[in-house]
Design a protein that fits this description.
With 472 residues, this protein is α/β, with parallel strands linked by helices. Helix content is 46%, strand content 13%. It has four domains: 128 residues, Rossmann fold (3-Layer(aba) Sandwich); 170 residues, P-loop containing nucleotide triphosphate hydrolases (Rossmann fold, 3-Layer(aba) Sandwich), CATH 3.40.50.300; 78 residues, Orthogonal Bundle (Helicase, Ruva Protein, domain 3); 63 residues, Orthogonal Bundle (Arc Repressor Mutant, subunit A). It is elongated.
Length: 472
Protein backbone atom coordinates (compact mmCIF):
# COMPACT_ATOMS: atom_id res chain seq x y z
CA UNK A 1 0.00 0.00 0.00
CA UNK A 2 1.45 3.35 -1.05
CA UNK A 3 1.82 6.14 1.48
CA UNK A 4 -0.18 9.31 0.75
CA UNK A 5 2.28 11.93 -0.47
CA UNK A 6 -0.15 14.83 -0.85
CA UNK A 7 -3.83 15.67 -0.72
CA UNK A 8 -4.76 17.05 -4.15
CA UNK A 9 -8.01 18.54 -5.47
CA UNK A 10 -8.53 18.21 -9.25
CA UNK A 11 -11.29 20.35 -10.84
CA UNK A 12 -12.33 19.69 -14.46
CA UNK A 13 -15.71 19.48 -16.21
CA UNK A 14 -14.48 16.64 -18.45
CA UNK A 15 -15.04 13.30 -16.69
CA UNK A 16 -12.36 11.58 -18.77
CA UNK A 17 -9.78 14.22 -17.74
CA UNK A 18 -10.82 13.93 -14.07
CA UNK A 19 -10.50 10.15 -14.18
CA UNK A 20 -7.15 10.34 -15.96
CA UNK A 21 -5.71 12.78 -13.41
CA UNK A 22 -7.00 10.61 -10.58
CA UNK A 23 -5.44 7.40 -11.92
CA UNK A 24 -2.05 8.96 -12.74
CA UNK A 25 -1.64 10.75 -9.42
CA UNK A 26 -2.98 7.94 -7.26
CA UNK A 27 -0.34 5.72 -8.86
CA UNK A 28 2.22 8.17 -7.46
CA UNK A 29 0.85 7.72 -3.93
CA UNK A 30 -1.20 10.93 -3.78
CA UNK A 31 -4.70 11.22 -2.34
CA UNK A 32 -6.98 12.67 -5.04
CA UNK A 33 -10.38 14.32 -4.72
CA UNK A 34 -12.19 15.44 -7.89
CA UNK A 35 -14.82 18.08 -8.64
CA UNK A 36 -16.74 18.76 -11.87
CA UNK A 37 -17.02 22.56 -11.59
CA UNK A 38 -15.78 25.61 -9.67
CA UNK A 39 -18.67 25.71 -7.21
CA UNK A 40 -18.10 22.10 -6.15
CA UNK A 41 -14.37 22.77 -5.89
CA UNK A 42 -14.87 25.78 -3.61
CA UNK A 43 -17.26 23.78 -1.44
CA UNK A 44 -14.60 21.11 -0.98
CA UNK A 45 -11.96 23.77 -0.21
CA UNK A 46 -14.23 25.21 2.47
CA UNK A 47 -14.64 21.78 4.07
CA UNK A 48 -11.13 20.31 3.80
CA UNK A 49 -7.46 21.25 3.60
CA UNK A 50 -5.56 20.37 0.43
CA UNK A 51 -1.84 20.49 -0.35
CA UNK A 52 -2.41 21.32 -4.04
CA UNK A 53 -5.22 22.28 -6.45
CA UNK A 54 -5.32 21.41 -10.16
CA UNK A 55 -8.03 23.33 -12.01
CA UNK A 56 -9.11 23.68 -15.61
CA UNK A 57 -9.15 27.29 -16.75
CA UNK A 58 -12.45 27.02 -18.67
CA UNK A 59 -15.16 25.74 -16.34
CA UNK A 60 -18.94 26.22 -16.45
CA UNK A 61 -20.04 28.83 -13.92
CA UNK A 62 -17.12 29.77 -11.70
CA UNK A 63 -13.98 29.42 -13.80
CA UNK A 64 -10.43 28.46 -12.95
CA UNK A 65 -9.46 32.12 -12.40
CA UNK A 66 -12.19 32.36 -9.74
CA UNK A 67 -10.80 29.27 -8.00
CA UNK A 68 -7.31 30.78 -8.19
CA UNK A 69 -8.51 34.11 -6.76
CA UNK A 70 -10.13 32.26 -3.84
CA UNK A 71 -6.91 30.36 -3.09
CA UNK A 72 -4.72 33.45 -3.29
CA UNK A 73 -6.99 35.31 -0.86
CA UNK A 74 -8.19 32.58 1.53
CA UNK A 75 -5.59 29.78 1.32
CA UNK A 76 -2.32 31.29 0.04
CA UNK A 77 -0.37 28.35 1.45
CA UNK A 78 -2.02 26.03 -1.12
CA UNK A 79 -0.40 26.17 -4.60
CA UNK A 80 -2.57 26.08 -7.73
CA UNK A 81 -1.73 24.56 -11.13
CA UNK A 82 -3.81 25.73 -14.11
CA UNK A 83 -4.82 23.26 -16.87
CA UNK A 84 -5.64 24.88 -20.20
CA UNK A 85 -5.99 24.24 -23.90
CA UNK A 86 -3.11 25.10 -26.23
CA UNK A 87 -5.01 28.06 -27.64
CA UNK A 88 -5.37 29.78 -24.26
CA UNK A 89 -1.77 29.62 -23.01
CA UNK A 90 -1.79 33.43 -22.78
CA UNK A 91 -4.55 33.17 -20.16
CA UNK A 92 -2.49 30.62 -18.24
CA UNK A 93 0.47 33.01 -18.18
CA UNK A 94 -1.86 35.71 -16.84
CA UNK A 95 -2.98 33.25 -14.15
CA UNK A 96 0.65 32.71 -13.11
CA UNK A 97 1.12 36.46 -12.76
CA UNK A 98 -1.89 36.44 -10.46
CA UNK A 99 -0.52 33.68 -8.23
CA UNK A 100 -0.74 30.30 -9.99
CA UNK A 101 2.28 28.06 -9.38
CA UNK A 102 2.45 26.66 -12.95
CA UNK A 103 0.28 25.52 -15.86
CA UNK A 104 -0.23 22.38 -17.99
CA UNK A 105 -1.66 22.15 -21.49
CA UNK A 106 -4.22 19.63 -22.73
CA UNK A 107 -3.86 16.84 -23.51
CA UNK A 108 -1.91 16.50 -20.24
CA UNK A 109 1.31 14.54 -20.56
CA UNK A 110 1.49 12.08 -17.61
CA UNK A 111 5.26 12.51 -17.10
CA UNK A 112 5.02 16.31 -17.16
CA UNK A 113 2.02 16.16 -14.81
CA UNK A 114 3.95 14.10 -12.25
CA UNK A 115 7.00 16.38 -12.45
CA UNK A 116 5.03 19.63 -12.06
CA UNK A 117 2.94 18.20 -9.20
CA UNK A 118 6.08 16.95 -7.41
CA UNK A 119 7.74 20.39 -7.77
CA UNK A 120 4.62 22.18 -6.49
CA UNK A 121 4.31 19.89 -3.46
CA UNK A 122 8.03 20.28 -2.68
CA UNK A 123 7.68 24.05 -2.98
CA UNK A 124 4.67 23.99 -0.65
CA UNK A 125 6.51 21.79 1.85
CA UNK A 126 9.50 24.15 1.88
CA UNK A 127 7.18 27.13 2.42
CA UNK A 128 5.57 25.37 5.39
CA UNK A 129 8.94 24.42 6.84
CA UNK A 130 10.19 27.98 6.37
CA UNK A 131 7.10 29.33 8.13
CA UNK A 132 7.59 26.85 10.97
CA UNK A 133 11.24 27.82 11.23
CA UNK A 134 10.32 31.49 11.45
CA UNK A 135 7.84 30.68 14.23
CA UNK A 136 10.56 28.79 16.09
CA UNK A 137 12.97 31.69 15.62
CA UNK A 138 10.36 34.11 16.90
CA UNK A 139 9.78 31.94 19.97
CA UNK A 140 13.51 31.71 20.59
CA UNK A 141 14.47 35.29 19.85
CA UNK A 142 11.29 37.14 20.77
CA UNK A 143 11.58 39.79 23.47
CA UNK A 144 9.47 37.61 25.78
CA UNK A 145 12.19 34.94 25.73
CA UNK A 146 14.89 37.27 27.06
CA UNK A 147 15.32 36.51 30.73
CA UNK A 148 16.15 39.09 33.37
CA UNK A 149 14.55 41.52 35.79
CA UNK A 150 17.64 43.24 37.16
CA UNK A 151 17.99 46.98 36.71
CA UNK A 152 21.01 46.46 34.45
CA UNK A 153 19.13 44.15 32.07
CA UNK A 154 15.95 46.22 32.16
CA UNK A 155 17.93 49.11 30.66
CA UNK A 156 19.27 46.80 27.95
CA UNK A 157 15.76 45.52 27.10
CA UNK A 158 14.43 49.07 26.84
CA UNK A 159 17.20 50.00 24.39
CA UNK A 160 16.63 46.88 22.28
CA UNK A 161 12.90 47.66 22.03
CA UNK A 162 13.66 51.20 20.87
CA UNK A 163 16.28 50.33 18.23
CA UNK A 164 14.98 47.00 16.88
CA UNK A 165 12.71 48.36 14.16
CA UNK A 166 15.16 51.00 12.92
CA UNK A 167 18.14 50.78 10.59
CA UNK A 168 20.56 52.39 13.05
CA UNK A 169 23.96 50.76 13.49
CA UNK A 170 24.24 49.07 16.89
CA UNK A 171 27.46 48.42 18.82
CA UNK A 172 27.20 45.73 21.49
CA UNK A 173 29.81 45.99 24.23
CA UNK A 174 30.37 43.29 26.80
CA UNK A 175 32.42 40.36 28.01
CA UNK A 176 32.37 37.02 26.22
CA UNK A 177 29.33 34.94 27.04
CA UNK A 178 27.05 37.81 28.07
CA UNK A 179 24.55 37.18 25.27
CA UNK A 180 25.55 39.64 22.55
CA UNK A 181 24.68 37.15 19.79
CA UNK A 182 21.26 36.49 21.34
CA UNK A 183 20.60 40.24 21.43
CA UNK A 184 21.63 40.51 17.77
CA UNK A 185 19.09 37.83 16.82
CA UNK A 186 16.41 39.56 18.91
CA UNK A 187 17.05 42.90 17.18
CA UNK A 188 16.97 41.33 13.70
CA UNK A 189 13.90 39.14 14.19
CA UNK A 190 11.93 42.01 15.71
CA UNK A 191 12.77 44.42 12.89
CA UNK A 192 11.27 45.06 9.47
CA UNK A 193 14.23 43.08 8.08
CA UNK A 194 13.11 39.85 9.77
CA UNK A 195 12.36 38.22 6.40
CA UNK A 196 15.83 39.09 5.14
CA UNK A 197 19.03 37.22 6.00
CA UNK A 198 21.01 37.58 9.21
CA UNK A 199 24.66 36.97 8.28
CA UNK A 200 27.14 36.55 11.16
CA UNK A 201 30.88 37.07 10.76
CA UNK A 202 33.30 36.25 13.59
CA UNK A 203 36.18 38.53 12.71
CA UNK A 204 38.48 36.83 15.23
CA UNK A 205 37.83 33.31 13.92
CA UNK A 206 38.75 33.95 10.26
CA UNK A 207 42.44 34.33 9.35
CA UNK A 208 43.30 37.90 8.42
CA UNK A 209 44.39 36.98 4.90
CA UNK A 210 40.98 35.38 4.24
CA UNK A 211 38.73 37.87 6.02
CA UNK A 212 38.65 40.45 3.22
CA UNK A 213 37.52 37.84 0.69
CA UNK A 214 35.01 36.49 3.21
CA UNK A 215 33.48 39.94 3.70
CA UNK A 216 33.59 41.38 0.17
CA UNK A 217 33.81 38.30 -2.05
CA UNK A 218 36.09 37.97 -5.08
CA UNK A 219 35.99 37.68 -8.84
CA UNK A 220 37.17 34.63 -10.72
CA UNK A 221 40.93 34.82 -11.23
CA UNK A 222 41.43 37.50 -8.57
CA UNK A 223 44.12 35.31 -6.97
CA UNK A 224 45.65 31.86 -7.41
CA UNK A 225 42.82 29.73 -6.03
CA UNK A 226 39.92 31.97 -7.11
CA UNK A 227 38.49 29.51 -9.63
CA UNK A 228 35.02 31.08 -9.55
CA UNK A 229 33.29 34.28 -8.51
CA UNK A 230 32.28 34.23 -4.85
CA UNK A 231 29.77 36.45 -3.05
CA UNK A 232 30.98 37.96 0.21
CA UNK A 233 29.07 38.24 3.47
CA UNK A 234 28.05 41.86 2.81
CA UNK A 235 26.47 40.84 -0.48
CA UNK A 236 24.77 37.84 1.15
CA UNK A 237 23.29 40.16 3.79
CA UNK A 238 21.60 42.42 1.21
CA UNK A 239 18.09 43.20 2.45
CA UNK A 240 18.91 41.98 5.95
CA UNK A 241 21.45 42.36 8.75
CA UNK A 242 25.16 41.66 9.02
CA UNK A 243 26.63 40.91 12.46
CA UNK A 244 30.33 41.74 12.79
CA UNK A 245 31.39 39.96 15.96
CA UNK A 246 34.75 40.77 17.60
CA UNK A 247 35.22 43.70 15.24
CA UNK A 248 38.15 44.94 17.32
CA UNK A 249 40.28 42.14 15.81
CA UNK A 250 40.23 43.60 12.29
CA UNK A 251 43.48 44.80 10.77
CA UNK A 252 43.87 48.57 10.17
CA UNK A 253 43.74 48.06 6.38
CA UNK A 254 40.45 46.21 6.58
CA UNK A 255 39.03 48.79 8.97
CA UNK A 256 39.35 51.39 6.18
CA UNK A 257 37.26 49.25 3.83
CA UNK A 258 34.63 48.58 6.49
CA UNK A 259 34.39 52.33 7.07
CA UNK A 260 33.54 52.87 3.40
CA UNK A 261 30.78 50.25 3.51
CA UNK A 262 29.28 51.91 6.57
CA UNK A 263 29.41 55.32 4.87
CA UNK A 264 28.28 54.43 1.35
CA UNK A 265 26.81 50.91 1.60
CA UNK A 266 29.02 50.13 -1.41
CA UNK A 267 32.16 48.10 -2.14
CA UNK A 268 33.96 46.13 -4.88
CA UNK A 269 34.76 42.44 -4.83
CA UNK A 270 38.46 41.56 -4.74
CA UNK A 271 39.69 41.69 -8.31
CA UNK A 272 36.55 43.47 -9.47
CA UNK A 273 35.84 46.99 -10.75
CA UNK A 274 32.05 47.01 -10.50
CA UNK A 275 30.70 48.85 -7.46
CA UNK A 276 28.16 46.74 -5.60
CA UNK A 277 25.55 48.54 -3.50
CA UNK A 278 23.78 46.77 -0.64
CA UNK A 279 20.85 47.51 1.64
CA UNK A 280 22.07 46.25 5.01
CA UNK A 281 21.85 46.95 8.69
CA UNK A 282 25.10 46.60 10.65
CA UNK A 283 25.36 45.25 14.19
CA UNK A 284 28.88 45.00 15.61
CA UNK A 285 30.11 43.52 18.87
CA UNK A 286 33.31 43.41 20.89
CA UNK A 287 34.51 42.30 24.30
CA UNK A 288 37.28 44.90 24.31
CA UNK A 289 37.37 48.60 25.18
CA UNK A 290 37.27 50.22 21.74
CA UNK A 291 37.84 53.73 23.10
CA UNK A 292 41.04 52.54 24.77
CA UNK A 293 42.12 50.91 21.49
CA UNK A 294 41.45 54.21 19.70
CA UNK A 295 43.70 56.03 22.19
CA UNK A 296 46.40 53.39 21.57
CA UNK A 297 46.05 53.87 17.77
CA UNK A 298 44.96 50.22 17.42
CA UNK A 299 41.46 51.04 16.15
CA UNK A 300 40.42 53.80 13.77
CA UNK A 301 38.66 56.68 15.48
CA UNK A 302 36.43 57.43 12.47
CA UNK A 303 35.31 53.78 12.30
CA UNK A 304 34.60 53.78 16.03
CA UNK A 305 32.24 56.74 15.67
CA UNK A 306 30.54 55.13 12.66
CA UNK A 307 29.89 52.01 14.72
CA UNK A 308 29.05 53.77 17.98
CA UNK A 309 25.67 55.13 16.82
CA UNK A 310 23.63 53.09 19.32
CA UNK A 311 26.01 51.59 21.91
CA UNK A 312 24.49 48.93 24.16
CA UNK A 313 26.57 47.69 27.08
CA UNK A 314 25.59 44.13 27.99
CA UNK A 315 26.37 43.62 31.70
CA UNK A 316 28.30 40.58 32.94
CA UNK A 317 26.35 38.05 34.97
CA UNK A 318 27.99 39.14 38.23
CA UNK A 319 26.35 42.57 37.81
CA UNK A 320 22.87 41.16 37.14
CA UNK A 321 21.82 41.07 40.77
CA UNK A 322 18.71 38.96 41.23
CA UNK A 323 18.70 37.41 37.73
CA UNK A 324 20.44 34.16 38.68
CA UNK A 325 17.30 32.34 39.97
CA UNK A 326 15.38 33.33 36.82
CA UNK A 327 18.18 32.23 34.50
CA UNK A 328 18.81 28.90 36.25
CA UNK A 329 15.09 28.09 36.18
CA UNK A 330 14.86 29.05 32.50
CA UNK A 331 17.82 26.86 31.48
CA UNK A 332 16.72 23.93 33.67
CA UNK A 333 13.28 24.02 32.04
CA UNK A 334 14.81 24.23 28.55
CA UNK A 335 17.22 21.31 29.00
CA UNK A 336 14.73 19.13 30.89
CA UNK A 337 12.32 19.60 27.99
CA UNK A 338 14.99 18.81 25.39
CA UNK A 339 16.16 15.72 27.28
CA UNK A 340 12.58 14.67 28.13
CA UNK A 341 13.30 14.59 31.85
CA UNK A 342 11.16 15.65 34.82
CA UNK A 343 11.74 19.27 35.80
CA UNK A 344 14.74 19.64 38.10
CA UNK A 345 15.32 22.39 40.64
CA UNK A 346 18.23 23.70 42.67
CA UNK A 347 18.37 23.31 46.44
CA UNK A 348 18.64 26.61 48.38
CA UNK A 349 22.24 25.73 49.30
CA UNK A 350 23.18 25.04 45.68
CA UNK A 351 21.58 28.27 44.48
CA UNK A 352 23.38 30.20 47.23
CA UNK A 353 26.73 28.83 46.07
CA UNK A 354 25.95 29.68 42.44
CA UNK A 355 25.20 33.20 43.58
CA UNK A 356 28.69 33.42 45.12
CA UNK A 357 30.44 32.22 41.95
CA UNK A 358 32.00 35.08 39.89
CA UNK A 359 30.90 33.56 36.53
CA UNK A 360 33.88 34.52 34.36
CA UNK A 361 32.14 32.82 31.41
CA UNK A 362 28.91 34.72 32.12
CA UNK A 363 25.53 33.45 30.89
CA UNK A 364 27.14 30.96 28.50
CA UNK A 365 28.98 29.35 31.43
CA UNK A 366 25.75 29.18 33.42
CA UNK A 367 23.87 27.67 30.48
CA UNK A 368 26.53 24.99 30.00
CA UNK A 369 26.48 24.16 33.71
CA UNK A 370 22.69 23.77 33.75
CA UNK A 371 22.89 21.39 30.77
CA UNK A 372 25.56 19.37 32.59
CA UNK A 373 23.48 19.19 35.78
CA UNK A 374 20.34 18.10 33.92
CA UNK A 375 22.36 15.41 32.14
CA UNK A 376 24.26 14.03 35.14
CA UNK A 377 21.99 14.58 38.16
CA UNK A 378 19.74 11.59 38.83
CA UNK A 379 17.25 13.10 41.26
CA UNK A 380 14.94 16.04 40.67
CA UNK A 381 16.69 18.14 43.34
CA UNK A 382 20.17 19.41 42.50
CA UNK A 383 22.24 19.52 45.69
CA UNK A 384 25.53 21.21 46.60
CA UNK A 385 27.32 17.88 46.10
CA UNK A 386 26.14 17.82 42.45
CA UNK A 387 27.88 21.11 41.65
CA UNK A 388 31.41 21.30 40.19
CA UNK A 389 34.15 21.11 42.80
CA UNK A 390 35.38 24.65 42.12
CA UNK A 391 31.94 25.94 43.08
CA UNK A 392 31.65 23.62 46.08
CA UNK A 393 34.89 25.14 47.38
CA UNK A 394 32.98 28.38 47.87
CA UNK A 395 31.20 26.60 50.73
CA UNK A 396 34.45 26.36 52.70
CA UNK A 397 35.02 29.09 55.29
CA UNK A 398 37.29 31.97 54.46
CA UNK A 399 40.64 31.88 56.23
CA UNK A 400 40.03 33.19 59.70
CA UNK A 401 42.04 36.14 60.94
CA UNK A 402 45.00 35.10 63.01
CA UNK A 403 44.26 35.49 66.74
CA UNK A 404 45.91 38.38 68.53
CA UNK A 405 49.20 37.59 70.12
CA UNK A 406 49.18 38.06 73.91
CA UNK A 407 52.21 38.41 76.20
CA UNK A 408 51.73 34.73 77.02
CA UNK A 409 51.88 33.88 73.26
CA UNK A 410 49.91 31.04 71.61
CA UNK A 411 50.43 27.48 70.49
CA UNK A 412 50.95 27.70 66.72
CA UNK A 413 50.66 23.95 66.07
CA UNK A 414 47.39 23.77 67.99
CA UNK A 415 45.95 26.72 66.06
CA UNK A 416 46.92 25.18 62.70
CA UNK A 417 45.51 21.80 63.69
CA UNK A 418 42.22 23.38 64.82
CA UNK A 419 41.83 25.20 61.53
CA UNK A 420 42.73 22.05 59.56
CA UNK A 421 40.07 20.11 61.50
CA UNK A 422 37.48 22.80 60.68
CA UNK A 423 38.30 22.64 56.96
CA UNK A 424 38.13 18.83 56.87
CA UNK A 425 34.76 18.76 58.64
CA UNK A 426 33.39 21.42 56.30
CA UNK A 427 34.58 19.49 53.23
CA UNK A 428 33.03 16.27 54.56
CA UNK A 429 29.76 18.03 55.22
CA UNK A 430 29.69 19.60 51.74
CA UNK A 431 30.30 16.22 50.09
CA UNK A 432 27.81 14.30 52.28
CA UNK A 433 30.81 12.50 53.83
CA UNK A 434 31.87 10.99 50.51
CA UNK A 435 35.62 10.82 51.17
CA UNK A 436 36.77 11.01 47.54
CA UNK A 437 34.73 14.18 46.97
CA UNK A 438 35.90 15.75 50.22
CA UNK A 439 39.52 14.99 49.31
CA UNK A 440 39.02 16.60 45.90
CA UNK A 441 37.58 19.73 47.55
CA UNK A 442 40.74 20.00 49.64
CA UNK A 443 43.05 19.06 46.75
CA UNK A 444 44.24 16.00 48.67
CA UNK A 445 44.58 12.34 47.85
CA UNK A 446 41.90 10.23 49.49
CA UNK A 447 44.50 8.32 51.51
CA UNK A 448 46.01 11.60 52.76
CA UNK A 449 42.56 12.77 53.87
CA UNK A 450 41.96 9.51 55.75
CA UNK A 451 45.30 9.87 57.53
CA UNK A 452 44.49 13.43 58.57
CA UNK A 453 41.02 12.37 59.78
CA UNK A 454 42.63 9.68 61.92
CA UNK A 455 45.14 12.15 63.41
CA UNK A 456 42.33 14.66 64.07
CA UNK A 457 40.17 11.93 65.61
CA UNK A 458 37.41 12.62 63.07
CA UNK A 459 35.05 9.63 62.74
CA UNK A 460 34.66 7.90 59.38
CA UNK A 461 30.90 8.55 59.45
CA UNK A 462 28.95 11.65 60.48
CA UNK A 463 28.27 11.32 64.21
CA UNK A 464 24.63 12.30 63.76
CA UNK A 465 23.90 9.34 61.43
CA UNK A 466 25.27 6.21 63.18
CA UNK A 467 26.26 3.39 60.89
CA UNK A 468 25.98 5.44 57.68
CA UNK A 469 29.60 5.18 56.61
CA UNK A 470 30.31 6.13 53.02
CA UNK A 471 33.70 4.87 52.11
CA UNK A 472 33.59 5.75 48.43
Amino acid sequence: MKRDRGAILAIDDDQAVRQGLKEILEAQGHQITVAADGEAGLALLADRTFDLVLTDLALPGLGGMDVLAHLVKEQPQCPCIIITGFGTIGNAVTAMRQGAYDYLTKPVDPTELCLVVARALDHNRLKRENLQLKKQLHRRYGFGNMVGMSEAMTRVFELIHKVADTDSTVLLLGESGTGKELITHAIHFNSSRRDGPLIPVNCAAIPEELLESELFGHERGAFTHAVRTRLGRFEQADGGTIFLDEISEMSPGLQVKILRVLQDRAFERIGGVKTIRVDIRVIAATNRDLEALVRQNKFREDLFYRLNVIPIRVPPLRERVGDLPLLTRHFLQEFCRKQKKPLKRLSPGALDLLDQHPWPGNVRELENLMERLVTLTEGELIEVADLPEKIQLLNLPALALAPDLTPQGLHLTAQVQAFERQLILKALESSHWVKSRAAALLNLNRTTLLEKMKKQNIPATPPFIPGSEKSS
